[in-house]
Each structure stands twice: as structure tokens, then as C-alpha cells.
């Protein structure tokens, strides 16, 4: 076996031998040691700078990545892919909106005017209609005690004559309010009603805007004179006429007698009073006067 050199013995001998000769050698070794130390420091500084640079590069890269992710997020938020796209109509031009508003105001103004005209017309019509029922109510109140029935239509044309046989027409009395009574000498209710007709005509005799007319439906005209004399009616102010033919009352709608009709100055039927009425009493006179005033 080959014996390995004893390094420890060599180092001990070297140490015993002491430092190398000459101060220059020691100075060179010290300078060399400092240079080595400076190089080590420089290497550490370079390493630190490189590490710092790499960190800066990494941060920049991370910033770019973050910016890219933010941009991608904004793009994703701006254009969603999960929801369907909806078309939004473009806004109307301002001019069109102004025209529409102006057109709307014009429509409102026209509508308001129409409503005003309509309401005004209704008020006028309602006022006029209110006057008619008021007048009719007044007339109805005056004649209510005599229980009238409504009648309408033009007065029928009758062939009439006076007690002297002269032809007469109801048109001869046009312009006057007429109280037309149908009677006969053989009619007992007519006989009871005659005195009231006589009183009515007497009380209204001074008025030239109305007339009381008694039309006989007797088939024998020669009986009328003696009847009037017996009743004391020869001087009556009632206009006594005779109908030809004697059923003239049926043209007015009467089936029996006595019946009394109110005829307007224009020749229109206004009311009928069936059977006997107390015309000579205050309620009868009041009814005739109120009706005559209403007709005029």
C-alpha cells in the first residue's frame, strides 16, 4: 500500500517555519484578498440588481395581464353573450315631438270647445224643456178638478149650419181658443150641463180671443128652438150650431154625448172632457181661461 502524505504534518511544519520572507509578499496577498472581497461584493450587488430588475419585469407583466383581463371584462360586460340582443328604436327627432305635442294641444282645445258647445246646448235645451213642463203643470193644475183627457191632431172638418140654416165652418173661428161641446135635445146629461155652459159663455163673453160653441147632433132640427126656449137659452152667448150629419161627434172620437173639446187657435185638438162638467163654476172658468192663455 502506498502511504498517503500527511497533510497535517506538512501544515504544522509550515507553521513552524513562520511567515514567508519579505514584506512585499504579504502586501500582495493582502491586496489580492481585498480584490477578492470587492469582487464578491460586486457580484452580490449585481445579483441584487438583477433580482430587482426581474421583479420589475414581473410586475410589469402582471400589470399588463391585469389590464388585459380588465379589458376583457369590459368587453364581456359591453357585449353579453348569454342574453339575446334587443333592438332599441332610435329616439324621435325633437321636431316631431314638438309637432306631436302641438297636435295634442290642438286636439284638447277642439275637444274642450265641443264639450263647451254641447254643455251649452244641453243647458239651453234643458231650460226650454223646463219651461214646458212648468206651463203644462200650471195648465194641469187649473184643469185637474175637471179631469181632462189628452187629445191631439187637427180638428176634423164638419158640415155645420146655424139656427137659421146658414153654413158655418169651424175655420171661421180660426185664431180663437174654442170650447166645443156636443149635445142633443134628447140627452138628459146634456140638459144638466147646459146651464153651466151658458154661465161660462156669459162670464167670458167680453173676450174676443175665445168662443164657446155647442153643436147639436139632433136628427130633427125643428126640436132645437122649442128646447132652447124651454131652457131659457134664447139669449145665450153660446154659439149654437147643428151638425150634418148628426154623427159628427164621432169624427172627433166621441162615442157618447155630452163631450167637450178644447181647440187651439191654430185648429189643433188639445183636450177632451168626457161627460158632464161644471163649467159655470169657478173651477170651470179657471180651466178655460188658463187653457186659452196657454194656447196663445
TrEMBL record:
Q: Which Pfam families match?
A: AhpC-TSA (PF00578)
Might you name a Gene Ontology BP term for this protein? cytochrome complex assembly
- Its protein name is Thiol:disulfide interchange protein TlpA
Q: Where is the composition biased (Basic and acidic residues)?
A: 1-14
Could you tell me the keywords of this UniProt record?
Answer: Cytochrome c-type biogenesis, Disulfide bond, Membrane, Redox-active center, Transmembrane, Transmembrane helix
Q: Where is this region: Disordered?
A: 1-99
Bias (Acidic residues) occurs at 36-46
The Gene Ontology terms for molecular function here are:
antioxidant activity; oxidoreductase activity
Query: Can you name a GO cellular component term?
Result: cell envelope
List the top taxonomic levels of the source: Bacteria, Pseudomonadati, Myxococcota, Polyangia, Nannocystales
Question: PANTHER family from the entry?
Answer: THIOL:DISULFIDE INTERCHANGE PROTEIN DSBE (PTHR42852)
Membrane-spanning intervals of the chain:
108-128
Q: Where is the composition biased (Low complexity)?
A: 15-35, 47-81
Q: Which domain of life is it from?
A: Bacteria
The protein's location, in the record's own words, is:
Cell envelope
Key word Signal present: no
Which stretches make up the Thioredoxin domain? 149-296
Amino acid at each position: 500500500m502506498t502511504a498517503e502524505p500527511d497533510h497535517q504534518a506538512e501544515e504544522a511544519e509550515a507553521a513552524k517555519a513562520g511567515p514567508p520572507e519579505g514584506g512585499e509578499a504579504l502586501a500582495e496577498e493582502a491586496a489580492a484578498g481585498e480584490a477578492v472581497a470587492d469582487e464578491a461584493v460586486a457580484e452580490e450587488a449585481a445579483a441584487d440588481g438583477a433580482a430587482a430588475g426581474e421583479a420589475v419585469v414581473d410586475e410589469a407583466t402582471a400589470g399588463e395581464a391585469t389590464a388585459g383581463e380588465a379589458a376583457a371584462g369590459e368587453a364581456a360586460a359591453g357585449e353579453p353573450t348569454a342574453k339575446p340582443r334587443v333592438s332599441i328604436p332610435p329616439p324621435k327627432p325633437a321636431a316631431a315631438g314638438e309637432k306631436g305635442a302641438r297636435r295634442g294641444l290642438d286636439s284638447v282645445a277642439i275637444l274642450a270647445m265641443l264639450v263647451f258647445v254641447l254643455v251649452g246646448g244641453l243647458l239651453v235645451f234643458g231650460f226650454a224643456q223646463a219651461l214646458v213642463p212648468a206651463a203644462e203643470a200650471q195648465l194641469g193644475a187649473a184643469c185637474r178638478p175637471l179631469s181632462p183627457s189628452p187629445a191631439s191632431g187637427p180638428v176634423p172638418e164638419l158640415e155645420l149650419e146655424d139656427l137659421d140654416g146658414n153654413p158655418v165652418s169651424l175655420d171661421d173661428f180660426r185664431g180663437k181658443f174654442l170650447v166645443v161641446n156636443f149635445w142633443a135635445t134628447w140627452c138628459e146629461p146634456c140638459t144638466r150641463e147646459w146651464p153651466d155652459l151658458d154661465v161660462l159663455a156669459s162670464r167670458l163673453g167680453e173676450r174676443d180671443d175665445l168662443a164657446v160653441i155647442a153643436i147639436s147632433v139632433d136628427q130633427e132640427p125643428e126640436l132645437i128652438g122649442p128646447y132652447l126656449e124651454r131652457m131659457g137659452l134664447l139669449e145665450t152667448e153660446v154659439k149654437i150650431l147643428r151638425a150634418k150629419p148628426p154623427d159628427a161627434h164621432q169624427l172627433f172620437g166621441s162615442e157618447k154625448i155630452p163631450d167637450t173639446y178644447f181647440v187651439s187657435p191654430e185648429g189643433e185638438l188639445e183636450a177632451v172632457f168626457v161627460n158632464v162638467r161644471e163649467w159655470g163654476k169657478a173651477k170651470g172658468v179657471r180651466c178655460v181661461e188658463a187653457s186659452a192663455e196657454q194656447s196663445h
